Amino acid sequence: MSQRYARSEELLERALRTIPLGSQTFSKSKTQYPHGVSPYFVTRGKGGHVWDADGNEYVDFISSLAAVTLGHGDPDVQAAVVGQLEDGVIFSLPHPLEMEVAERLVAMVPCAEKVRFGKNGSDATSGAVRIARAFTGRDHVAVCGYHGWQDWYIGATARNRGVPQAVRDLTHTFPFNDLPALETLLASHPGGFAAVMMEPMNVGDPKPGYLQAVKELAHRHGALLIFDETITGFRFANGGAQALFGVTPDLATFGKGIANGYPLAAVAGRADVMAEMEEVFFSFTMGGETLSLAAAKATLDKLVREPVTATLAARGQEALDRTAALIAANDLGDVLSVSGHPSWGFLNMRDAGGYSAFEIKTLFLQEVFARGVLTLGTHNLCYAHGPADIDRLITVYGEVFPILADAIRNRGLKQMLKCEPLQPLFRVR
Fold it and tell me: Known catalytic residues?
């Protein structure tokens, strides 16, 4: 047992007795973290930092899978939640916060004319697909990106166990930035597609004109365009990626950063399409839960009041630029690269020197965790990250990148590992 992570490993062993994978979230589970060199439980967070069960402090560049945009324990959000707690959490009738938050979304998001709330991004994407099917009278859906755990989407991935074949047959994937591939796909089922659902950006930038061309192509085939902005919303710009890129979809889905990590999601879009929600059943006991709505109201107001997204972009761009310089300085261009929006930047790893990307990533994680940086290969910025946090990230990379270079060039990677390498995983993107 690792001394640094002794308590985490004890808790993991205990959790596995009652919880499959030891976590409620696949991306937080033991599948992602090499055993013996990783923390498994976080007990506290403040600003851009977290502390694990053993008391080790980290600069947190996972930011709760990009759900925390302002920072852990943001004072404005906390005050709003504590104030609402005095009045109650859930009621027998709607609370005015429901309309107050909906009004803010309509004011901020280009496509938003009407809004409905759920609790997870999967609620929102599934609701959007259901109303698109109702609106068009069609069944097939084209998808690009990750859209949650529900049958309609996950059936089209390698994690399709338990999803009926009949459901799987209705969802079709297409590659990002490849318009001819989408055109071929839509033509393969004439009059059959209800929607094109996509993340407007994740690892790579959309080519100039690509998103607008997707919209035109979807409409030409009678399908709705849905942007899954679960991550990009309130991170790329106050109005989401649709505002940043100037392309307005018919529907959009939001989650994660909408309430700085409190459980809330939303479907927003054209009034005529959203009118289907009056007949389509999309209903949650906790959909109007007021603590999350109070958190969302405070979060959205802070986004308008302060330069949150501009700060995320500036800090993130510095992280990407300085990381790229270190990659070049260590002659690791054949192994590592950077991409993505600055607020959600990616450190990409490739097979190299006879080692798999998973083996290289294992050594990377082993070394960055030991130096107090929490990342899985992305830079998920939050507003609380300051210049010192970016400096710390680059200092750690400055120590770890030479270790990777030496391990690959001198064929010593496996000897440097203090654990078993990660196994090939289900990739959400």
Answer: 146, 228, 256
